[in-house]
Amino acid sequence: MAGPFGFMEKQTTTTEPMQQSRREFLRTSATAAGAxxxxxxxxxxQSNKKTFKVALIGCGGRGSxxxxxxxxxxxxxxxxxGLNLEIQLVAAADWFAGRAKAVGERHGLPANKCFGGADxxxxxxxxxxxxxxxxxxxxxxxxxxxxxxxxxxxxxxEKPVAVDPPGVRRVIKAGEAxxxxxxxxxxxxxRRHEHGYNQLAREIxxxxxxxxxxxxxxxxxxxxxxxxxxxxxxxxxxxGPWQIWVEMSGDxxxxxxxxxxxxxxxxxxxxxxxAVGFGYRVQRVAGNMYDFFSVDYEYPQGVHxxxxxxxxxxxxxxxxxxxxxxxxxxxxxxxxxxxxxQEVGYHESGYVGEHAHLLYAIVKGRPLNxxxxxxxxxxxxxLGRESAYSGQKLTWAEMFEDPNAQPxxxxxxxxxxxxxxxxxxxxxxxxxxxxxxGKYKPA
Length: 443
Fold this sequence. Notes:
The chain is α/β, with parallel strands linked by helices. It contains 15 helices and twelve strands. The protein has a six-stranded parallel sheet, with helices on both faces. Helix 5 (165-181) packs antiparallel against helix 12. The longest helix is centred in the N-terminal third of the chain and has 21 residues, at 61-81.
C-alpha cells in the first residue's frame, strides 16, 4: 500500500532503546494560526488562505493538548512550506458539557457550539467539520470513529482505539471505509512521526541489521491516576476517572503501553501470533485495573518479544524498545529506502508532527491511513491483557480472526459499551473487582 508521500507505508523495522515520558496533557494558550481540511476540495479565499473547519470530541487534557498540537502543526507548515493554512474550531464535544465550554471559551467558540452528553459527538458532526480530533475515553472510539468516517471526515484519533476484540474489528472495518473514501486517518502513536524511529525503520527494511531475532518493549513508571476509592453511583464516576476502569480504558497495558507494542509491530512488520502473560495489582485500591503486566509475545518466524509495563511507585523505571539483530549495521551505512516524510520533514515534537503529517497529506492529496496500524497495536495489548487476566495462552486467530475457534474470546465485549451510555442502561463497576488468573473467564 502506498504511503502518504508515494512510498510504501507498510515498513519492516526495529528500534534501538528510546525513552519517552508520558505526554504533556495541557497547554495553556492557543496559537492563533493553524490548518484544517475537509473531505471535499477546500475553498480558497481571495487571499489564497486555506481555511479548514475542525471539531474536537473529547475535551479533557489529551483532547485540549491535541487541539493545541493541531494549531502548532499548521503554524509550522505555514512557516516551513508557506501553505497559508488556517484552523477554524467549529465544535467542541465532551461527556461533560463544562469541559467542552471551557475549551470553547479559550478559542472563542460560542457556547451553543459546545456539546455534552452521550450524543455530543453527533452534535459536533452536525456542525460539518472537515477534520475531527478524537480524544474521548477509548470505550467510545469505535462508535465515534464509525460515525466520523460515515460522515466523510478526516480524522486524528488517540490511542488506544478500542477496549475489546469487537471494537478492534469495528475500527479496522471503518478504516477500510475511510481508505475507499480517500479520507486521511492518523493515530496518536506519535513515534511513527519521529525522525529517529523512521530512520531506524528504513535501515531495517534495507536489511542493515539482518533479521530481528527478539527483543523487549517496556513502559514501567511510577504510580499515576487517582487511587482514592470511588464507589461509582452513576456514569460520571466512570467517564471522569476513565483511566482506572478496564472497561473504559482497556487497562494501562492498552491505554499506555500500546505505544511500545506499536513499535514492535511496526519494526517486525507483523502482529503477534500468540501471547502468554501474567500480572496483578499490589498497590491500587481504586478502579479495577492491574498494577503490572509481563507478556511473552510470539511473532512469525519464532521471534519472541518480552513486554513489561508497570505503574508502581518506588520501583525501577524504563520506557523504550530494544531489539536483538542478526548482525551489526555497517559503520558507513546509509539507508537506501526513501524517507516517507522527507518532503514535509519532521517537527521536533512527535505530537505536533503527527498533526503536521496529517494536514500535509490532506493538502497534497496523498494517502495516509493509520487505522489498521493502531487497531493492530490495540489488539496486541488486548491479547496480552486477556492472557494475563486468565492465565491462559491466547492466539491472535482465536481472538480476532476465527469466530468459531474460541467464541468466548472472539466475542468478548466489555460493558458498559458506548451504546450503553446512550441508552443509560449501565451496570456500575466496582473498586477492586479485578480479574483473578486461573479463575477469570470471559462472559
